[in-house]
Design goal:
Layout (H helix, E strand, L loop, with lengths): L1 E4 L9 E6 L3 H6 L13 E7 L5 E11 L2 E6 L4 H9 L8 E4 L5 E6 L3 H9 L9 E3 L2 E5 L7 E6 L4 H10 L3 E2 L2 H11 L20 H4 L10 H10 L4 E9 L8 E4 L2 E12 L2 E9 L9 E3 L6 E4 L4
Parallel strand pairs: 1-11
Antiparallel strand pairs: 1-7, 2-5, 2-6, 3-4, 4-5, 7-10, 8-9, 9-10, 12-15, 12-17, 13-14, 13-16, 14-15, 16-17
Length: about 300
């Protein structure tokens, strides 16, 4: 089990925005890809799409009150999230309050961390739920196949949490350790792995971040059409290579044909692992990839599951 104060190394690419007012629920329902019709205390992971169904950012949205929500994201700068939230506000009676400057996200990963949190907080967050206690807002995370949670700490609570976790035998890790967990689990980061030029379905996010029953939201028509038609032409894959990790955006080839590109990567032993967007037409998943050029060093595509 380990934890990481993630925004120490991610240039503050994390946002916490509170939205409230008479129209808060109806406005968010028309913008967010996931259904927010949950009881107070509910937690929902979803996406902010554009009209073409492409993924601009992701968030976990917490229902704090009937007409008040907290929007949390560890992959987007506060100004970018605010801009997305404000882009379609016309006559809606809502208020936005940016609380990002006083929010420090901490990721806790490892089987048994839910029970540990229950001991610290006297109540445990569970699937689709969040808790607020001990100077933090805590919700289920998306960083690992193991149990994992994100605790959004107030700055004055950070030292106390670090002391609690140290006394519980939980070690502190860097962002690279969290990235390795995420990539090994095949969990896309938005917008690094699935972004403004990609459909959620290309990274499997349609299964966890899209509601097909809530009614209209921005990008919903594209999502419905994809669900009916089925296949996408590209898909995010786990890949592995030796030597120095290539840069994000490095192309991959099979033969003379460019088959895709690297999105995320992290060191792993004496090599690297990553997530790559690969075209499915003509792809031989059992054959090696050439990195950077048709005669480049070789990488392998890891089997799904």
């Amino acid at each position: 089990m380990f934890y990481c104060l993630i925004n120490k190394e991610l240039n503050n690419q994390s946002a916490k925005v509170r939205i409230s007012g008479p129209d808060a629920y109806t406005y968010l329902q028309g913008q967010f890809s996931q259904d927010l019709n949950a009881p107070i205390g509910g937690s929902a992971y979803g996406l902010w799409l554009n009209q073409k169904g492409k993924a601009l950012a992701d968030s976990t949205v917490l229902r704090c009150a009937e007409k008040e929500f907290l929007i949390l994201s560890t992959g987007v700068a506060p100004a970018e999230l605010r801009a997305r939230l404000e882009a379609y506000l016309i006559a809606d009676e809502v208020e936005l309050a940016d609380e990002s400057a006083t929010a420090v996200p901490l990721v806790l990963i490892g089987d048994g961390c839910g029970a540990l949190l229950a001991g610290l907080l006297a109540v445990s967050p569970g699937p689709g739920r969040y808790v607020e206690a001990a100077g933090a807002v805590v919700h289920p995370g998306r960083y690992s196949t193991q149990e994992n949670y994100v605790a959004w700490l107030r700055p004055e609570s950070v030292a106390q949490w670090r002391d609690w976790l140290a006394r519980a035998g939980v070690s502190e890790a860097g962002v690279a350790t969290v990235e390795r967990e995420r990539i090994l689990a095949g969990i896309p980061a938005v917008p690094r792995d699935i972004g403004p030029n990609d459909l959620p379905n290309e990274g499997g996010l349609d299964a966890v971040a899209i509601s097909y029953t809530k009614g209209c939201f921005l990008g919903q028509e594209v999502m419905a059409r994809l669900k009916n038609l089925g296949q996408v032409r590209r898909r995010l894959h786990q890949v592995r290579g030796t030597g120095v990790a290539p840069a994000s955006g490095t192309p991959f080839f099979q033969g003379e044909r460019r088959i895709g590109e690297l999105r995320s990567t992290v060191r792993d032993g004496d090599g690297w692992i990553g997530l790559a967007m690969l075209g499915l037409v003509g792809l031989d998943a059992a054959a090696p990839l050439a990195v950077g050029a048709p005669d480049g060093t070789r990488a392998e595509i890891l089997p799904h599951g």
